[in-house]
Amino acid sequence: MLRHEFQPGRLITGLFLTLAAVLYAGDADGAWETPWFVVIPVVVGGLCLAGSVSAVTGLIRRHKRSDAQGVRPGHPPDNPAGGVT
Questions:
Q1: What's the CA gap between 29 and 39, in Å, rounded?
Q2: Where are the domains of the chain?
Q3: Mean pLDDT over residues 12-19, rounded?
Q4: Which long-range contacts link 25-31 to residues 24+ away (Cβ below 8 Å)?
Q5: Rounded to whole angstroms, how far apart are CA atoms 5 and 10?
Q6: What is d(CA 13, CA 51) in angstroms, rounded to the nearest whole number?
Q7: What is the mean pLDDT of residues 41-52?
Q8: Angle between helices 8-29 and 39-69 (to 10 degrees)
Q9: Which sequence ranges are marked TM in the entry (predicted)?
Q10: Listed residue (12, 21, 15) closest to 48, CA to CA
Q11: 13, 9, 40, 12: which is closest to 24 by C-alpha?
């Protein structure tokens, strides 16, 4: 039993924000030197990628849902009674 559906956009967001945290933690610990401006492209790029993945995932799910219901994109649903509407 699934508790919720898989959302890859949120996974990507979490991975990129975790990467930003690791970069800053390594800098704070003295393991390496991270310039302040490095994290901005990591976070913004991760959010853009996550948004794109979420949009594609939504389109795929909407397409699968319409196929399962017998609705073709751009057409009205089929009349189950067989008559003309």
A1: 16
A2: 8-69
A3: 97
A4: none
A5: 11
A6: 9
A7: 98
A8: 170
A9: 38-60
A10: 12
A11: 40
